[in-house]
Specification:
The complex is a heterodimer of chains A (215) and B (546).
Chain A: H1 2-25, H2 32-40, H3 54-63, H4 75-86, E1 104-108, H5 118-122, E2 128-129, E3 137-138, E4 158-162, H6 180-183
Antiparallel strand pairs in A: 1-4, 2-3
Chain B: H1 19-22, E1 27-28, E2 34-38, E3 48-49, E4 56-57, E5 62-65, E6 74-75, E7 80-89, E8 97-105, H2 126-135, H3 148-151, E9 161-166, H4 175-182, H5 184-198, E10 202-208, H6 212-225, E11 230-235, H7 244-252, E12 267-271, H8 272-284, E13 290-297, E14 303-308, H9 313-319, E15 327-332, E16 339-340, E17 354-359, H10 381-385, H11 392-400, H12 404-409, H13 420-424, H14 431-485, H15 490-513, H16 523-544
Parallel strand pairs in B: 1-14, 9-10, 9-12, 10-11, 13-17
Antiparallel strand pairs in B: 2-8, 3-5, 4-7, 5-6, 7-8, 13-14, 15-16, 15-17
The chains are: A mainly alpha (215), B alpha/beta (546).
Chain lengths: 215, 546
């Protein structure tokens, strides 16, 4: 009886020591879940989710305080990725936080800019270059399109310009968005280009994207 | 020489439609008034212009230089004047514009013979060959446009077989066939050049077995040349036998590993037109400024033309008896893998091999394509036809559902977009469209991921910078406070205040003068500033008005 108690107590002590050692030796710095969530967020730092940046939002999601559908810049793909990671059901973007827009970039009208530096202070990624009383400009390749520089500008010289795809960033459209004429009528009779005076219809009359279903 | 050939999975047999354009010899296309030369006609980095607007250029002059290993030079294809360097429409499925050099030709077609350096292959090292080829702007002319100098660099790999691709498997296209018939000797020279660059042990010229006349000509030329390391192989006429990976499988029986390169299995595949261009570059010192192009479809005179790179496509169509009023659609490339143009005022580029014209009078009989896409009936015909041995149906489901992880698990990136699955699909589902969509979407997501990681880094640095500035400010204030509150007698305080006042006064005087970077300006700069100020005054004045 006594020996059994001693044996169990000894075991408890041994395991306790092992567990205690492991807890110290293999301690995890920070919260790995927050990092994983943060990695999925678009890092625009725009604050539309009501949190002051992407990381605070990630922390709130990890704690269960925030929902996964509060990030308009990330949009559908971010919600799906978050749902995947957290084992939740994806849901549509909460319209209270805004809507998913195509990527935009801030452009300063350099002739109006008075060089007040307010936008420089507002930019979360230091993408605006300039000095007091000198013209400012946006480094286009670093701009995340967060809109945070718009409110502080006293002369409203910043415009958000839609990001235009070039040959590198151009994407094939989703096939179901093909215009009717390309899917239903194979023998489209339209001219390629309007020549002034020519009595022809252009391929662009119907706003058709380029995609011709393969022959 | 008869060699054992192998088979590849799937493929489809198509009507060839090649007779229309192989009956008459290749003609020289007319010299256009304007040449439009895109800086990015190849895979890799765009070339960098080395001429400026207003420069006179001669035929064959380099007008843009390669900026890296994976880049190719661009040359003026005729003499004339550079009138613009601007964004212009190019042949691309997106219909987007890209930077081009525009030359107004003078009609003399002058070349500077003195600079055209010819070489003897025996005197050249592999490295020199690659250098000449890169500076001659030669890229893979079969369609992909990969810079040839890079592809001819075996690095430290051993190249067993060099395959010269003359198996033009798409319907209508006959430019390589005509090139082989007319320039067989120079193609063989090109093969020797490539062989030397690669140190390949044997060379195989692969031609489809239905091109009897071409096979005959090539066989005779190879026999006469007496090189026993060059073979001519008659490969089966099955689409896509001319696909790089399929051709390698047919000739060597080896499969290129998934996501790998042919050189990984000791094979390099080059197009016949590339071999011809290599020969012109080394033997005649002539850069890549023209190529053979098939113009077919419903026009009056379908044929092959030797066309200067940069010639507008509408000029060529006109030369072959078509005109804008009767044009309904122009496809660049073949009917299986080509794409429809948005605009016919785009130039011929290095990779353009065929222009297929549809007119309002008659449709070109393209490989089957019926109107309405119907639901998938899971017949599996696509999997039987897929030459890459993929599962097109699975790819379709996942691409349609935008499940991009799953679609990559099914090896989406091994798809060569040949269109066989499309062709056999009884429901006429635009399968390849789904794959193209998924591929570009995945690339886009990867780009976005990289950008967001970069933005996170910048945001973290931003936060660190604010923190650092705050600490620095505090430290400064502490120091100031310590200085002032040190000896606390009245006089000392007053002196400090007086000194501060003086400093402020001095500063005001200084700043009243001018900001630092506006001193010591040249008259031109001052003039420029005055202009900007005037413009700004005008603009802000305008804005102030209600």
């Amino acid at each position: 009886m006594l020996s059994a108690i001693i044996a169990l107590a000894a075991l408890a002590v041994v395991f306790g020591l092992i567990l205690g050692f492991a807890a110290v030796r293999y301690k995890v710095e920070g919260d790995p879940l927050v990092d994983k969530i943060d990695a999925l967020l678009p890092q625009t730092q725009c604050g539309q989710c009501t949190y002051p940046g992407c990381r605070p939002y990630a922390e709130a999601i990890a704690k269960g305080e925030a929902d996964i559908n509060q990030c308009p810049p990330g949009g559908e793909s971010t919600i799906i990725a978050l749902a995947d990671l957290l084992g939740k059901d994806p849901k549509p973007l909460n319209p209270e936080h805004g809507e998913e827009k195509p990527k935009r970039i801030a452009v300063i009208d350099e002739e109006i800019c008075i060089g007040c530096t307010l936008c420089i202070q507002a930019c979360p990624v230091d993408a605006i270059l300039g000095a007091a009383k000198q013209m400012h400009t946006v480094i286009a390749s670093e701009c995340t399109g967060c809109d945070l520089c718009l409110p502080p500008c006293p002369v409203e010289c910043i415009d958000m310009v839609e990001f235009k795809p070039d040959l590198e960033t151009w994407k094939w459209p989703y096939p179901e968005n093909l215009p009717e004429n390309q899917v239903k009528k194979p023998r489209v009779i339209t001219s390629i280009k309007i020549t002034p005076g020519a009595n022809t219809k252009t391929a662009h009359d119907d706003d058709s994207p380029p995609v011709e279903k393969q022959a | 020489m008869i060699r054992k050939l192998f088979d590849f999975h799937g493929g489809v047999t198509l009507r060839q439609h090649k007779k229309e354009t192989t009956q008459q010899p290749v003609e020289q296309a007319a010299l256009p008034k304007r040449l439009i030369l895109p800086l990015h006609q190849h895979i890799g980095h765009p070339a960098e212009p080395v001429v400026s607007i207003g420069d006179e250029v001669f035929k064959g002059q380099q007008i843009a230089k390669p900026i890296s290993d994976i880049s190719a030079a661009v040359h003026a294809s005729s003499s004339g004047k550079v009138v613009d360097i601007c964004e212009h429409d190019i042949p691309h499925p997106s219909g987007l514009k890209a930077p081009c050099i525009i030359i107004e030709t003078d009609g003399f077609d002058r070349s500077r013979r003195a600079t055209a350096r010819t070489h003897d292959l025996n005197d050249l090292s592999a490295e020199q060959i690659r250098h000449i080829i890169q500076n001659s702007g030669i890229v893979g002319l079969g369609g992909a446009g990969f810079p040839s100098s890079k592809k001819l660099d075996p690095a430290d790999k051993k190249v067993e077989t060099l395959i010269i691709n003359g198996a033009e498997c798409e319907p209508y296209i006959t430019c390589d066939e005509m090139l082989m018939r007319e320039q067989a000797r120079e193609i063989i020279e090109g093969v020797l050049i490539m062989r030397k660059a690669l140190q390949a042990s044997r060379c195989v010229i692969a031609i489809e077995n239905k091109k009897f006349k071409t096979l005959d000509i090539m066989n005779k030329v190879v026999e006469r040349s007496g090189y026993d390391f060059i073979d001519v192989a008659a490969v089966p006429t099955v689409y896509p036998a001319g696909g790089e990976k399929q051709l390698i499988q047919v000739v060597t029986g080896l499969e290129v590993p998934s996501q790998g390169l042919p050189i990984d299995i000791g094979v390099v595949c080059q197009n016949v037109a590339t071999a011809y261009a290599a020969c012109r570059a080394i033997e005649h010192g002539e850069p890549l400024i023209s190529r053979y192009i098939t113009i077919a479809g419903s026009i009056v005179k379908p044929r092959n033309l030797e066309v200067r790179i940069g010639t507008p496509i509408n000029d060529l169509i006109e030369q072959c008896g078509g005109n804008r009023q009767t044009l309904s659609k122009v496809i660049v490339g073949g009917p299986m893998m080509g794409f429809a143009l948005h605009n016919d005022e785009v130039p011929v580029v290095k990779t353009t091999n065929c222009i297929l014209v549809n007119s309002v009078i008659a449709d070109v009989p393209l490989p089957s394509r019926l109107p309405q896409a119907m639901p998938c009936i899971r017949c599996g015909a696509c999997a039987d036809a897929c030459p890459m041995n993929l599962l097109p149906q699975q790819l379709y489901w996942y691409a349609k559902a935008k499940d991009f992880d799953k679609v990559q698990d099914y090896d989406l990136f091994d798809c060569i977009e040949c269109g066989c699955c499309d062709y056999v699909c009884p429901s006429h589902i635009p399968l390849v469209q789904y794959y193209r969509f998924a591929k570009t979407e995945i690339w886009n997501q990867e780009r976005e991921k990289r950008f967001s990681d970069h933005s996170r880094e910048r945001h973290e640095f931003h936060k660190f910078r604010l923190e650092r500035e705050k600490l620095e400010r505090e430290a400064r204030h502490r120091q100031k406070r310590a200085e002032i509150s040190g000896p606390s007698d009245e006089d000392h305080k007053k002196a400090a205040i007086q000194a501060a006042l003086e400093r402020a006064q001095k500063k005001r005087e200084q700043s009243a003068v001018m900001p630092k970077n506006t001193q010591n300006l040249t008259p031109e700069q001052q003039k420029l500033i005055a202009e900007v100020d005037a413009r700004r005054a005008k603009k802000t004045g305008f804005k102030d008005k209600p």
